Amino acid sequence: MPRAKKFGHQKRRLIRKKTSVCVVSEKCDVSSSKKKIEKSKGYFDYEDNFSAESQSRFVIIDLNMLNDIFNNIAKCRYCDRSFCFDVAENKSSRRGLASSISATCKYCGSSHGSMTSNSVPAGYEVNLRFVYGMRCIGIGKSAAQTFCALMNLPPPPAKFERLYTPIFNALETASSRSMNDNLKVEFSLVNASSCDV
Fold first, then answer.
1. Which of 26, 51, 126, 141 can bridge 160 by disulfide, Cβ–Cβ 3.0-4.6 Å?
2. How far apart are CA 192 and CA 197, in angstroms?
3. What pLDDT, on the 0 to 100 scale, is given for residue 162?
C-alpha cells in the first residue's frame, strides 16, 4: 500500500496582499479597564476620613498600638488610675477574623471585653465582608488562608463556603430591586410618551 502523504512536498499557499488599512483612533488605543477606571473616577473617594458614626468600617490595627492608645487616654473607672490597661485578645473566642478583645486593669482587675465585629444573621460582618471581597477579586478559601497568613491576621472563617449563600441572596435581592426600579421607570416613560401622541 503506498504512502498517503508525500514528504518533502509543500502545499501551494495563496499569499494575499494586505489591502485593508488600519484606522487608528483614540478610542481603539484605550483598554476596557482604563475606560472603567475613568468612568468610576468620582465614585470612589479613598481620601475619605473614616468615622465610626457614619457606618461600620474595618481597619487592621496592631494590638500593641491599641494598648498604647488605651493607656494614653483612658482611666480605670473603678480605681481611677491611668496607664493601667492591658489589651489582649482571647484566642479561644476567635470566629474567623472576628475576635474577642478585652481591656483589663492591672491594679484592680476590672475588665471590659467586646467582639471586634458586629454580629449578623450569617455570622460576623467582618467575615461576611472578607468572603465577599475574596469572591469579588476571584479567589477562594486557599488564597484567603494564604493572604491571612502573610498579613499575620487570624485565619479566615472555617466555614468559608457557608457564607456564600447569604452573599448570593443579598446580590439576588439587590439585582431584582434594581430591575424592578428600572422597569417602573421604563413604564412611566412609555406611558408619558403615549399620552403625548
1. 141
2. 9
3. 87
Listed as ranges, residues in the chain with pLDDT below 70 are: 1-56, 195-197
The single residue listed with the C-alpha cell 458614626 is 53
C-alpha to C-alpha distances, 37 to 40, 41, 42, nearest whole angstrom: 5, 6, 10
Q: Are strands 98-105 and 123-124 parallel, antiparallel or unpaired?
A: unpaired
Query: Residue 48: left (phi > 0), alpha (psi -120 to 50), or beta?
Result: beta
Cross-strand partners of 120: 123
Cell of 183: 422597569
- Per DSSP, 82 falls in state B
Distance, CA of 132 to CA of 144 (rounded, Å): 11
Instruction: Compute the distance between CA of residue 183 and CA of residue 177 in angstroms, rounded to an integer.
Output: 10
How far CA 91 is from CA of 7, 80, 96, 98, in Å, comes to 73, 29, 11, 10
Q: Would you say 153 and 60 are in contact if contact means Cβ atoms under 8 Å apart? A: yes
* Cβ–Cβ < 8 Å for 90, 99: yes
Q: In what order do the strands lie in the sheet with 98-105?
A: 85-95, 98-105, 111-115
Taking the mean position of all CA atoms in its chain, how far away is CA 48? 17
Place of cell 495563496: 14
Answer whether 0.85 is exceeded by the pTM. no
